[in-house]
Amino acid sequence: MLYYVHWSEQLRVAPTIELTSEQEEELTRLVRSKRTSVRLAERARIVLLAGQGLQNKVIAERLGIGRIQVARWRERYLQAGLQGIERDLPRGAPPVKVDVAKLVELTTQSTPHGATHWSTRKMGKVLGVSASTVMRHWQANGLKPHIVRGFKVSRDPQFVEKLEDIVGLYMSPPEHAMVLCCDEKSQVQALDRTQPGLPLKKGRAQTMTHDYKRHGTTTLFAALNVLDGQVIGQCQQRHTHAEWLKFLRKIDRETPKDKTLHLIADNYATHKHPAVQAWLAKHPGFHMHFTPASASWLNRVERFFRDICENRLRRGVFTSVPELVAAIDEYIAHHNPKPFIWTKSARDILHKVIRANGRLSSKKNATLH
User: Fold this and answer.
1) DSSP of 221-280, one letter per residue?
2) Quick check: 189 and 217 in contact, CB under 8 A?
3) CA angle at residue 136 from 92 to 141, to 5 degrees?
4) Measured between alpha carbons, how far is residue 280 from residues 43, 233, 243, 270, 271 in Å?
5) Helix, strand, coil content of the chain in percent (nearest 5)
6) What is the mean pLDDT of residues 96-105?
7) How far, CA to CA in Å, does 279 sit from each of 114, 130, 199, 212, 296?
8) Which terminus of the chain is more solvent-facing, meaning fewer CB atoms within 10 Å of its CB: N or C?
9) pLDDT tens per residue across span 113-132
């Protein structure tokens, strides 16, 4: 606050600062110290000159700064002493207080008009805050409305038995046996691009046209050895029981004869065809184990399919099916196999599934009511 004294001409007179010897020594030390910031040293000079009785205008001219700035720090020193000039004044408008509870409730319990999920801008507009503020509170509360995860809880009546059977093979495989995770990846497309892309270079990502030409498809049959990660693969034109039988014969040829084979597969009808069952009956060394319905995540060959898609197929350019098959065979021959280690017990998985079923049931009941 500035004090005004009215004379014949209206003049502004700054409040007087009277410094003790201790205060003057302290301010002088701040001015002379090499460790003092430039701003604090300048403020200390303002107070020292004010203590000598100089007015704000004179101090401003001597230090080459604005008169309002001088008045501000003179007043701060009068109000709080040295602490008043050590702290910076708040700048701009005061920060807007966010109702975090309302933000979380809106994010988790509602959707914006005409959209399926909230964005930072839409939420910020509703709450009257910036998008960056919304993002900061979303991150603090672990909220990611822009992401949706796929899931499906198995309703297989024999889920527990199948789960314990397969997890038991992973965690405690039988002696003198091999455990193979088997499946087929159908409709693998040989895709060619309509125009050549540009290669990766500094400052520019690799480019690829969004449209493509189809040159046919193939089906990849694969068996993953959980002990060492080796893969037995075979590409075939179709994926009927005849091709599955052909793949079983390939497994029989490429595995040791003194080993019992435990094959883990899904419930696809091809795997249970009468002709397949008849062949298995003649080969007692083969033992089939089927995953529960809607639980393909138990079959670890799915991880291999994901890897080959990510590393070889998704960005690949193939002008024919033979070229695609050659690329798949090359990947299988040169990929880096790793031992498969399963850590979750059947009990842990079952508890998680029970919790998920409980949540789904409560959600369904709430919807009905």
Assistant:
1) EEEEETTT--EEEEEES--SHHHHHHHHHHHHHHS-TTSEEEEEE---GGGG-HHHHHHH
2) yes
3) 140
4) 91, 20, 15, 13, 11
5) 45, 15, 40
6) 88
7) 57, 67, 50, 41, 25
8) C
9) 999 999 999 999 999 999 99
- Both tokens of 250, joined, read 């390939």
Distance set, CA 31 to CA 16, 53, 134, 255 (Å): 21, 18, 43, 85
- Report the C-alpha gap between 114 and 223 in whole angstroms: 46
32 backbone φψ class: left, alpha, beta (φ>0; ψ -120 to 50): alpha
> Taking the alpha carbons of 327, 313, 325, 240 in that order, is the dihedral positive or negative?
positive
| Pair 244, 184: CB distance under 8 Å | yes
Average pLDDT over residues 290-316: 92
Judge whether residue 357 has pLDDT over 80.
no
Task: For 348, list phi and psi in degrees, rounded to 5.
Answer: -60, -45
φ, ψ of residue 123 to 5 degrees: the values are -65, -40
Residue 2 is predicted with a pLDDT of 42
Enclosing H/E stretch for 288 = strand 286-290
pTM: 0.67
Three-state SS string over 151-162 comes to: CCCCCCCCHHHH
- What whole-number distance in Å separates Cα of residue 253 and Cα of residue 256? 8
Residue 253: count other Cβ atoms within 10 Å of its Cβ: 9
